[in-house]
Amino acid sequence: MEILDVLATMAKTGRLGPAFSGADWHDVTDAFGEPFEIGTTSRRRKWPRLFGYGDLELSVCRCRKVSLICVQTWRDVVELPASVAGGTDTFPSGLRYADVVSALDRAGCSWEPCPSLTFGDQSTLVVMPTGASFTFEIPEGEAPVLHGMGLSGDGHVCSVPTPSS
Predict the structure, then answer these.
(1) pTM to 2 decimals?
(2) Is 159 a domain residue?
(3) Average pLDDT in the chain
């Protein structure tokens, strides 16, 4: 499977295997194994926390629900869990805007530019209806290159009480 197919399918379905906004963290770790911990998303709170499987990053709420999914594509290679990437775990990076748009069109994903996240040397497009975003870096004098792809949260409000300090 090609990385563009993986990302287009993810954008169309709003999930990458067991990982989707609202997924139970135990289901994700049962499928992918133990992740590496990246850390907290705030200096002041212990949750949510970021975990990774190669270049797949997941934000997990204190109630152990996945709240955000991101695939980093700016590194030399993109590493994903082989179980959700057709048996391949590393892919070439340097994905061009035209190739991403073509893959989304082939997958039947409607998309539109996202003006609020397009400025300076950055351009973003959003896939409807999943809200998947593709953010591109625009190197001077070159075609835009995919920097990252993300699936935003579903507006989750945690029901687990925050521990008192």
Answers:
(1) 0.87
(2) no
(3) 86
Domain that holds residue 123: 3-151
CA-CA distances (angstroms) from residue 122 to 32, 57, 67, 77, 146? 32, 21, 24, 20, 10
Residue 32 lies in a domain: yes
* Residue stretches of the chain with pLDDT short of 70: 1, 36, 39-47, 86, 88, 154-157, 160-165
Domain count along the chain: 1
Position 17 in a domain: yes
Alpha-carbon distance of 34 to 14, in angstroms, equals 22
